[in-house]
Specification:
The chain is an alpha/beta fold and 383 residues long. It is built from 15 helices and five strands. The chain has helices at residues 11-24, 47-59, 69-76, 94-104, 126-137, 157-160, 173-184, 188-198, 202-210, 212-223, 231-267, 281-322, 335-343, 347-365, 370-381; strands at residues 36-40, 82-85, 114-118, 143-149, 164-167.
Amino acid sequence: MSVFNELVGQSHIVAALKDAITAARNGEETQEMTHAWLFTGPPGSGRSSAAIAFAAALVCPNDGCGTCIDCRSAKAGGHADVEIIATEGLSIKIDEVRQLLQRVAWAPSVGGWRVVVMEDADRLTESAANALLKAIEEPGSRTVWLLCAPTLFDVIPTIRSRCRHLQLRTPSTADVAEVLTQRDGISPGMAEFAARASQGHIGRARHLANDESIRSRRNTIMKLPFVLSDIASAFRAAATLIDLATQEANTQSEVRDEKETQELAQAWGKGATGRGMAAGGAKALKELEKEQKSRATRMVRDCLDGALLDLATLYRDVMMAQAGITDTFINQDFAEQIMQLAKMSKNEKTLQKIDAIMKARTNLSYNAAPLLTIEALMCTLAQ
């Protein structure tokens, strides 16, 4: 048993991290162990999991056994010396970084290291990134920074130049299917479908295999390209996609938002006998509501991004069909419709449509209006 067992298809990363753990026993920086790391990789590759596993191994007396209280509390985000920053909003602001820097200035209280895992370093605002840079330039003697981002270039140059970079790979379909089958008890057929449809994203594969409603939404999304024929159908498809993304985001957030609001109101004294909320309670609730709205906006965009990736796999299959290769379809359940779509256009057009999908994803990441972005994309796909 080891904290690194959950890293699928990342043997090169595990080897590097184990070497660093061995070097860290001496308490000195070496070529293997340094104070700042940057984990990058495509969505679902496990970059956050790798960083958290490394953090657990650093504070574990047995180099990441996976069973002791230190390993379990570090992975759960409850270890005194491990700080996990996982923003659910659109960005990480400077005030959050300043508060973080005050906390990590303390010496380790339990283990030999104080470790900070920042799961979304690409969401740092410019001022927040500059504040973090100073801490990385002048680190505490026992502080380790573990930053995660999709690519090396999603982090400002001054930060990435001071970090050791580890690039994770997308796990193979076979590796993901094996994990779903052995660890989650999913049937081989469903595991293979989910692994193939998720394109190596372990989290999405698990949700897809376990939730019928997610499979139903994906099925609706994948049928959209087959009904695109004119501008009117393009606008209807865009509205459908936005509605599906909004519904999925609302499903994820409604129950959670209500629970958070109730717990915060109770913490400020609401419902206590003979008194209402303490002074400042109303302001705290407004701040929470603001955070929840930001989180909901991000959820919608994340759902749209996942849908666009699914559509890109379909047009990838169309391009394969146009090249005469039909045995490597990702979306084998739509093979007949894909073959028909392939006959109706040329390779160049298909490539342009894939490019349009990728540009739409980029525009959404830059906070472009979702409806206008998706409408423009559907009009392009209808051509």
